[in-house]
Amino acid sequence: MKRQIAWSMIVSIFFSCLLSSHAMAGKASTHANLGRTRYLMQRYAEAVSQFQQAAEADPEYPGIFGLLGAAQFQAGQLDASVDSFKKQIARTPDIASHHLNLGLAYMKKRLYEKAISSFQKAAELAPQEIDAFRNLGNCHIALGQPDLAVDAWRKAVALTASWKDHYNLGTALFRQKSYREALRQYEKALELAPEKNPAIHSALAKAAYELDMTDLAMQHYRQAALLDPTDVDTVYELGLIYEMKQLFEEAETEFKIVLRQDPGHLPARLRLAEIMVESGRIDHALKEYGTILETAPDNTEALLGIGVALIKKGDFSKATEHLLRAETLSPDRSDIRFQMALCYDIQGRYEDAALQYSRAVEIDPGLAEAYFNLGVLHDRGNELEKAEKYYLKTLELEPDFVDAYNNLGALHEKRGEARKALENYEKALELAPENAQVHNNIGVLRFKEGSYANAFASFRRAVELDPWFSQAYFNMGAVFEAQNEHFQAEEAYRNALRLDPAHRKALLGLARTLRATGDRQGALEFYEKLLAIDPGNTDALFSKAEILAADGRLDLAAKTYEFLLKNAPDHVDALNNLGVIFYRKKVYDEALRYLARAEALAGDRADIHNNLGTLYMETGNFQAAESQFETALEIERAAAPDAEPASPGPPTR
User: Fold this and answer.
1) What is the pTM of this model?
2) Closest to 602 (Cα-Cα) out of 631, 572, 645
3) Which of 107, 112, 153, 582 could bridge to 591 as Cys pair (CB 3.0-4.6 Å)?
């Protein structure tokens, strides 16, 4: 969204005063001539006195009320000047300059409709009177009538245009939102101006900005600031352009220049603080916001800015405090509600977050980000229908919202709707072909379909686009592992861990891969690393115990299985293997206890019945042994002959 840049119009008023050259003998003439002299000496009050005495001496003296009106105008006696000009017009109604001067008096009094009537009469009497058209333009601008102002200034320019006429026509066109033509008029003004003029450069910058010609706007703002570095508005606007173009260091410099000249310039201080927040200089930003609150304790923007900064700092309690203050001052601000929702969301206070997001969209029904985040909340809670509704609403408001398509793809994937998932991922890629997350998600979809080559291509593209994307490296490892390409899988898992040493699935995958290549000690090392992060990880505990048992460290293996069973008491394989360990240690009662529990949970497992049969035979209970072996044979006969080995599991997002 564009930032609104304030600008000011420069209008030149050319005052035309009729000075009669009529010379007459007598008292009236002497007073009139003395009045003219004092008028030219800019001693207007004395001129008024002389013209009044001339009128008293000879009320029919030619042009005397026009002269009196001009002097009264310059002396600030506007009501009197209007009366004098009216008297003169009553005597000489066909002289354009009298109507022009009456119009100027009305305009000075801000009686623009009356002024327009007088200027129109002046233009009717003297079509070449450029000042009539100039001041008509001024009045129409003052009344917010840019179309009529443009017509008036076009007529002025068609006569004998100065640079100011082109400038003012440009101003009227700008107000009319005819930015391209305004730009041309400002360029003509710049060409005709006798010297470099910062106001023209500033106007050119504004017109270029509205035309999205930001480089040209930046060029002219720079020139305007160079010509007049004391113009804080221009320097501030240059800072806004830099910020919009993400030239944050340059923007910060300009805002600091503004604040050196005007420490109370709140917009510049707010922008400076926001740049500091975005660059991670939270404490510096908080200091700037604090300076604002010292003089304006109820400044909503500063309170909101502090809230955002504190969220980034992780101080959610104080962030909430400032956001609530901002909300109290401006309860109808959707952006404040949105930031409060984010604060709650990050803390896991999902109900509070949902409430604030909902209030934000009540205030601003077009706030797509709030609808999207509501979708994420419901998605997280597995409320897929509600999540889909909010994602679709997001796309209704912003059809180019890439993350909404991406999340819809994942949602359809959860439902098992692979075709719809792919359609949404592909729409996301149409909008953002270099989005690594979407390429990764398409790879996950292809992996689940068993299309390993296509899955790998998607994961590889993801890491090409984002070399720091650890999850995509992990997923590449999963593809290799699924195809028993263990050395390539090892490399991919190590790449994932290089970027994210605490990546649990990558630690597990690497340990599993090392074990598959015969490096049991290497595998054990990574199982231990995973257990240091996640002590209750069942997969790591089970695999660690298997390796320890295979190495003959039965006591340690048994302790590992027992720890696992505290967290997962129905883990059949752990029960079975622990029973085998106690059998090997000849602790037959414990062996029977664990194997019997395994049988109760998984009576269709032939290996458990075989182990029980072996135990019973060893302890001399041959009848029980016979029964267990016969059961094992029945299960094996019924088993599918070509069962596939277990998959390492799908990659993840």
Assistant:
1) 0.72
2) 572
3) 582
